[in-house]
Amino acid sequence: MRKFAMAAAVLAFASTSVIITLPAISADAPAVVRKVLMQQDAPGGNTLSEVEVTIPVGGREGKHTHPGPLVVHVISGAFSLDYEGKPNITYKAGETFYVEPNHVHEGINRGTVPAVGIAAFVTPKGEALTKQQ
Fold first, then answer.
1. Which residue pairs from 55-58 have beta carbons closer than 8 angstroms and sit at least 24 positions apart in sequence?
2. Can you give the CATH number for the domain in which 46 is found?
3. DSSP three-state, residue 96
């Protein structure tokens, strides 16, 4: 129930919209777009963020980490997740996955349509959401 309440709070406090385009991995790779839907102060000196992530067909995020936990719900398409120390898994529309803090991972779109997901982050206040590796 507490998780549901937190998710409801995330949606209730939706505010500013910012679009961040990550650098392409190669000159030929299409750019990944992250649109910040909401950022809100959270208990413990943290920030709660909700971000729409779109990986175009053939796109990849590049290996990166997050300073706090990440939960992603796939809205459309599929995210192929390369995750440090684990086998590659593809998550399809309607599925949700979790990434532990400071674990190297990369989302890749190996499908035929853009992959879109809603990512929820809890990060220490003032820290960047993502650190490229």
1. 55/79, 55/107, 55/108, 55/109, 55/114, 55/115, 55/116, 56/30, 56/31, 56/32, 56/109, 56/114, 57/30, 57/109, 57/111, 57/112, 57/113, 57/114, 58/29, 58/30, 58/109
2. 2.60.120.10
3. strand
d(CA 71, CA 59): 20
- Locate tokens 């599925």: which residue? 95
Round to the nearest angstrom and report the end-to-end CA distance of the chain. Answer: 36
Domain interval for residue 89: 2-132
Helix (H, G, I), strand (E, B) or coil at 57: coil
The total of structural domains in the chain comes to 1
How would you write the pLDDT of the chain (133 residues) with one tens digit per residue?
A: 444 334 434 433 433 344 444 444 455 668 999 999 999 999 999 999 999 999 999 999 999 999 999 999 999 999 999 999 999 999 999 999 999 999 999 999 999 999 999 999 999 999 999 999 9
Say which amino acid occupies 28: D
Cα–Cα distance, 115 to 93 (Å, whole number): 9
